[in-house]
TrEMBL record:
UniProt gene name: LOC108007196
The protein's name in its UniProt record: Aminopeptidase
Cofactor: Zn(2+)
Domain ERAP1-like C-terminal: 575-903
SUPFAM superfamilies assigned: Leukotriene A4 hydrolase N-terminal domain, Metalloproteases ('zincins'), catalytic domain
GO MF terms, alphabetically ordered: alanyl aminopeptidase activity; metalloaminopeptidase activity; peptide binding; zinc ion binding
Marked site: Transition state stabilizer: Y421
Amino acid sequence: MEWLLLLCVALSLSLARANSSYDYFRLPTALRPQKYDLRILTIMENVEDLRFNGTVKIQIEALQNTKNITLHSKDLTIDESQITLRQISDEGSPENCITSTEVNPTHDFYILNTCQELLPGHIYELNLPFSAKLQEQLAGYYRSSYVDPVANKTRWISITQFEPASARLAFPCFDEPGYKAPFVITLGYHKKFTGLSNMPVKETKPHESLPDYVWTEFEESLPMSTYLVAYTVNDFSFKPSTLPSGTLFRTWARPNAIDQCDYAAEFGPKVLQYYEELFGIKFPLPKVDQIAVPDFSSGAMENWGLVTYTEGALLYSAEYSSQGDKQDLANTVAHELAHQWFGNLVTMNWWTDIWLNEGFATYVASLGMENVHPEWRSMQFQSVSNMLTIFQKDSLESSHPISRPIEVVSQISESFDEISYEKGSSVVRMMHLFLGEESFRTGLKSYLEKYAYKNAEQENLWESLTEAAHKTGALPKDYTIKTIMDSWTLQTGYPVINVTRDYTARTAELTQERYLLNTNISREHRDGCWWVPLSYTTQEEKDFNNTSPKAWMECNETGDSLPRTIKDLPGPDQWVIFNNQLSAPYKVNYDAQNWKLLIETLNSDEYQTIHVVNRAQLIDDVLYFAWTGEQQYDVALQVISYLHRERELLPWKAAFDNLRSINVIFRQMPNFRSLKGYIKKLITPIYEHLNGINDTDLSIQHPDQILLRSMVANWACTYQISDCESQSLSYFRKWRSDVNPDENNPVPISFRSVVYCTSIKRGSDEDWEFLWTRYQKANVANEKETIMDSLACSLEVWQLQRYLEINFDPKGEIRKQDSASVFQSIASNKIGFLLAKKYLMDNVVSISKFYHPQYEYMAELLPPLSDQIFTRKDYHEFKTFISKSKEQLKDIEQATNQSLEIILTNVQWKERNYEKFTSALQKFL
């Protein structure tokens, strides 16, 4: 990101200006804000000039002698002639002033040099007037719009998005999470609008000079970091909810979408109440507002008391949203409300520990969903999904530790990734399982109470949990949480545990090494050691519910792994399975005999005696080991050949996730026919068992089965299995022939993505135009998202090319927040892949400008391309493109490194495994 500081100073500039000599990336520690008084007037009457101006009064305490005040400010016009500074604590002269200002464009610093030295122990009040345009970029204080269908007019609203470092775009401030302070926010706006902020309204009164304008002052907030400050001026409606605690709970949306707020308004209060019980700490604010914003970059944002969402993440329509949409919505709301404690009440000290926010909120959200909707089995689904994600991402050498050093702003944005969220969640779950309920909850409560309204680091959490674990006896006295958990949070990657059994002695020798996809990295370089809680069960016991460790893999003081011998195992006729219900993020590879025993059970009527999560684990592990050469594909295909019996979601998810990687390479190769035949054979029994895509008995199906049906249908139509295609086309024709297609849609909700995609793939230009018109007229975000993805299924080159151009048109009908998703859909299409790759390479400069300054979007364009490149020639071409585009891709270095590594592992697979996999397939056809 080009973090340029454009402090366009008013013409009345009366102070000297210089570039700053202070060049450290963190604020100096001489001062601390004690309180902000922020007044913002938002003018939205002139569409050509949407803008705001305001003043911020900051009470600042001096902790050391200093002659300057360093703040963050970016793209703000500051009228320096109006700046005032005075001492407001008792002793000494109250008057002070500013002699000159400096800027540091690299770090967005705005430095004010003072007439007199600021002295420790004294409080000063700095008053800064500022103004700026309401930006089109989706960061800082910006504008969003929607079309009012009754008046057929565009309506404008204003909204904030400050995480991680964009409060500085809205007002000058100490824009680091460690500088918490209370805020008094006052919003000025036309009286036809509503103003919302973190706290309830204190009073509203007429503006002193602007007719029809009002000032709304909000109650003083609790101490909070600048990234959690939020406010909006809008003309939305709300749906109220009631909470037994008396907390006011409202769900807001544009007026013509208010009927889509019911589910979020019902689910949100339930999950908030559960968290109060879980943490033993009452929600500390008097109200929660959650609001669906038409243009929003982050999916959702946990601002304290004013939680913001994209429409697709908060709004639900029984007529248009699928079961998957509903579960995603609940997961997002549960995640953001978990942040009200983890992140808002206790905040990480610096972005190094962003995982303390995100990993905890991800894990706690699955606890919240399980509590409100036990029938969804969210804990199981989320834990397996998270593991599948990190096994892929964290097996790259270019991955990073959960807790990582942050030294520039672009690295903060890069840290909001699968490692902070999914891996963070997985290690928290592991800790919950080895500590047990009592120690875990006691430790968390102690941590949250001790650091409430303050900042903390992971060390602080380790201390609270160790104390609780020793008190309850959950951990031996010579073990500490720090020793165990630092091995998971401070080093990159995860281990594979190699289990070699001695069937005569009834023992197993366990060793560990880092698991890497890049097979060029030699064994001696796969170093690292993890403290691994070992849970396991045998064919006789089958006690998969015991997830407590029976033993540990330990590391010595120099960080080397100590081998572990497990005794009293069964004889050569019984298998053993390690990592019950995937209780920790590691893979397990067994000796040949143990795999043989597992294959025999899976391919018998006894397959369900292995827990469903461990069935998913065995599929995922063996397919990874075959990919990297630690297992033969003969063995891997024997494991998954049992799937013709499997009727549960998770093992199929594991299989599909792995087969997808092989499929995207194979579909460009001459032997694709063999894979096609194999997949048809594998999927036909489950497709027919689930009654294809016939919309019968959907109402009485378990949610898992609904998700499985749509997943299987997707593959079935792709591989032309049974009646999948013909049935899809029939549904689509029926819809097209309806006189009122925007009101009546006969396509079953669960299968809309499959039906739309298949019909566009096999359809005419008129079919594409019909669906595009439905996109333009749709009022439900989930339906719009489904249509956007489906339009990318076309096999017509010109149509896809036109779609790419529509997608990156700043004035086009696809919102910027959706453009990366549309690009991914086009690139995932076998015809669209080459077009999307060429389009990115030819237009990288204009695409980079399109996303400015939120360059993190650029990172989302690379994976669908790198996943499908597998020749050395194309690898070098992509590497050259990245090297030539350094300027446009400079803030997504992590993403470019990971993309190149993924291509390299694809190249290795093709060269090592293509022939072997093809011949292994023949035996199963």
